[in-house]
Amino acid sequence: MSDAKTGAGLPVVLLHALPLDSAMWDGPARALRARGHRVLPIDQRGFGGTPLPADAAPSLDLVADDLARALDRRGLGSALVAGCSMGGYTAMSFLRRHPHRVRALALFAARSAADTPKQAAARLRFADLITDDSLRAGIVADTTPSLLGATTRARRPRLLDRVTALARAADPRSVAWAQRAIAARGDSLAALSATDVPAVVVRGEEDELVSPDEARESAAALPHGRLVTLPGVGHLAPLEAPGKTVEILTALLAAAQAARPTGATAC
Fold this sequence. Notes:
The protein is of the alpha/beta class. It has twelve helices and six strands. The chain has a domain at 8-114 and 186-259: Alpha/Beta hydrolase fold, catalytic domain (Rossmann fold, 3-Layer(aba) Sandwich), CATH 3.40.50.1820.
């Protein structure tokens, strides 16, 4: 897991999408650090520099507990937790298991409901196929474009090439493990409804994987949440719209600091 950089105020945890790693947050992380914030980009199990334990059954709860230990090692009690896609699902697992450690929540391109049986079956089939050496290249080529919006694909082909290269480089065992963990996740609506922290749900207007209704449902469940829709953006706002992502997180940090100034303690 990447280390936090020196900075004042509330730390910012950044959780990446599947099949990428914490480098997808490099642009927003640099900008937030330049504004004086402490930033902790996380490589989740099996991605970046974090190993995938051979004997662990797929579960996002394990990944959430990894994050709790990462904060403990750095002496950090709580943070703004931001996650994109798989990172959003990890953020919601973290909220369920460690609610007192979430001071603010940002969910990018993540639905709060559990998978339907059809959705879960599709993930499990993907997990089986991605580990087949004869099929992997075709699967990556077929599925990766849907991670980016149509505008991004048309106007920024180099970003599509970059994301495709990262998808090809991801360990297929880790991708399969993560897909199975996502398929097994529970519904998070109750956890969202129970939290009183400032929160934002972000959806790209061209996201082909999370629908407007799903984004609205998540935002409506949050007592202090709001929905932000980004025009011309698909599933990966931190890569497609890093400037807007920084604006959203900066505003959320300000709301969290106003709600509980630095130095205040949680019950």
